[in-house]
Each structure stands twice: as structure tokens, then as C-alpha cells.
Amino acid sequence: MTDLTPQKDAALSAIEAADTLDALEAIRLEALGKKGWVSLALKTLGQMSPEERQEAAPAIQAIRAQIADALATRKAELEAAELEKQLASETLDLTLPAAELPRGSVHPVSQVMDELAEIFADLGFAVATGPEIEDDWHNFTALNMDESHPARAMHDTFYFPDKAEDGASILLRTHTSPVQIRSMKVHGAPIRIIAPGRVYRSDSDATHTPMFHQVEGLVVDKGIHLGHLKWTLETFFKAFFEREDITLRLRPSYFPFTEPSVEVDVGYSNEGNRRVVGGHGDAEGHDWMELGGSGMVNRRVLEMAGVDPDEYQGFAFGLGIDRIAMLKYGMNDLRAFFDGDPRWLSHYGFGAVDQPTLSAGVGVAS
Ligand code: PHE
């Protein structure tokens, strides 16, 4: 029988030198695989005489066991080293505090819309919505501004180049007042709604942006008069600005869709470089700021919206949401509202709170 000792020694030192599991597997196949030299040596036992076999068999078996042992030992070593390497490179420390994720915030305009929807909901107003892409009839004609009305020119309207199928001009609504018409046409009278939303005018400077926000208010019922309008606005402003000493000034004005019409001013005083709402008209440093228009709904508007003006009267108002937001939260540049600068938002934005939003929580009439 051939002496297997040199092959065995070579295999054992190769096993010790193997530095990958793949290399180790190659050595195993070469020795113990089906065609490996140890397996072939075992096959020769069959051709041996019983005496020879008695001597050779234990020797070959011993070699096989020795190599298998060495393989198992080296394999365990290599696996341990691999794990060690993995632990060193993948540093995941579950005891560390989690990295802070950037947090979104609620835009002041959205916050203010929620605040006012909540205050008006307490006064029994539902939230109504209308399309931002309007037709000429809802935005102007039904609001008592026919084609030749000079007030149309004051609106700096964005018109679409194409007309609707019925030939109507299509435009971006210039105010939220068309929602008055849409709501009355659907629900008739009595009705009590606010309609907050975006409006558009071709106008841009420090105090005007081409897109801004208004909230429309409309109350139609029997026996409604200007006193109801004044009380409603006063009650709203007290709740919104969280002060009792709110002074309102209703200034005679003109809107085609209200008669009589009044402009709504609120008293404020300068504290440092901030305008603070409240105080009285005769106090030092006191001034008035215009917040919107209002008046008794023109009977022609009620008629065009299908409400009988001999039976029902109404008041309506339209306030600039961005303006009242600036006044409440002390922001001074309107354009910053729509720049989308995250630094401005993280300074003035609001954390999300669990309260009704315009899309949920308050009844929506449309
Ligand atoms: N729609 C008017 C505007 O945008 C405001 C207004 C609304 C005036 C309702 C009176 C009544 O200027």
C-alpha cells in the first residue's frame, strides 16, 4: 500500500493556510470528495487481502478523521473571523438615540383657515367651496357686474385664452364672492356659509401677490340687517385676535353686489415695529387697517341666485386671510408667505395639532 503520509501532511498544512471558506472547500473536495484521494484510497480496500485490509483500513480511516477534524476547526475559525469583520464594519448601536427627522409644519395660511372655520362653525356657519377656475357669469355677471360694468376693469383678471363650450369667458376667480352665487343656487335660503380659498389678480408688489386668500361670508335669512353684519364681524375678530378691546370701523364704500356697502377697518397700534390689533381710535399711535369689504347683499344678486329679495335679506363680507394672518402673527412681508422658504416656515409655521381642518371636521356645503 502507498504511503499516504506526505499527502496527508500537505493537506493539513493547506488547511491551516486556507484563508477563505472557498479555499477550504476546494481542499475538502480534493481529499474527501467522491473523487478525492482519501475516498479513492478507501475504495482500494476491496481489492486487498484480509490481512492487508486489517492494517490499511484503520490507517486510512484515521487520515480521513484527521483531515475532517482539521477542516472543521479551520472552518469555525474562518467563520468567527468573518463575523468579527462584519461586526467591525456594520456599526449599528441600538442604544443610541434616533437621529432627528426633519419635521414638516402647518403653513400660517392653513392654520388661519382652520382657526376661522372653527370660530365661524361656533356661530353656525358651514364651509362652502367653489372652483378656482370660474366662468364670467359666476365671477361677475351674477354679482351685478354685467359686461360693461366699470368695476370689472378694476379686478385685473387672468382670463384663459379659450372660451367654454357655451361661449362664456373662463377666468381665475378674482374673489371668493362667486361662491355666494353657487351656494345660494344649490341651497337657497336661509343660508349661513363661509368660503375660504385662493383668488387671483394680475398684481404684484410688496403688499400684493398674484395669488392670495380670501374668506367670504354670507348670511341670508328673514330680517337680516347691517347690525347682524357688524356683530358677526366684531365677534369673529374678538375670537380670532383673542382680545376684547377690538375696534371696528365700517366705512361707506361701493361694491356692485352689496347695497349699502361698507369697508371693514380694524384699529391697531404700533408696538415697536409690530402692528398690534386693539385699542381705541383716540389713543396715541392708533391707526386703522382695511381688512375687507362687506355690505347687504344687493337684491339683484339674490334674484340672480334664485332667492326672493322681498322675502329674504342678507349680508356678505370678504376678508383678506393673508392680511389677518400677518396681523395676528406679526409677519411683515406678504411675499414671504408664498416663497416656500423652509426657514421662514420653521420660524412661523405651526406644529400639526389635532383639530378640525377644512377638509374634515366641519360640515361642508358646496
Ligand atoms: N369680493 C370683494 C372683493 O374682493 C369683497 C366683498 C365681499 C365685498 C363680499 C362685499 C361683500 O373686493
Notes on the protein architecture:
With 366 residues, the chain is α+β, with helices and mostly antiparallel strands. It has 11 helices and 12 strands. Residues 359-366 have low confidence and may be disordered. Strands 1, 5, 6, 7, 8, 9, 10, 11 and 12 form a 9-stranded mixed β-sheet that branches. A 3-stranded antiparallel β-sheet has the order 2-4-3. It has helices at residues 5-17, 21-32, 37-43, 50-89, 108-122, 136-139, 178-187, 226-241, 299-304, 321-329, 342-348; strands spanning 126-128, 133-135, 159-163, 169-172, 191-200, 211-221, 248-255, 258-271, 274-277, 286-297, 313-320, 364-365. It has 2 domains: 5-89; 108-348, Bira Bifunctional Protein, Domain 2 (BirA Bifunctional Protein, domain 2), CATH 3.30.930.10.
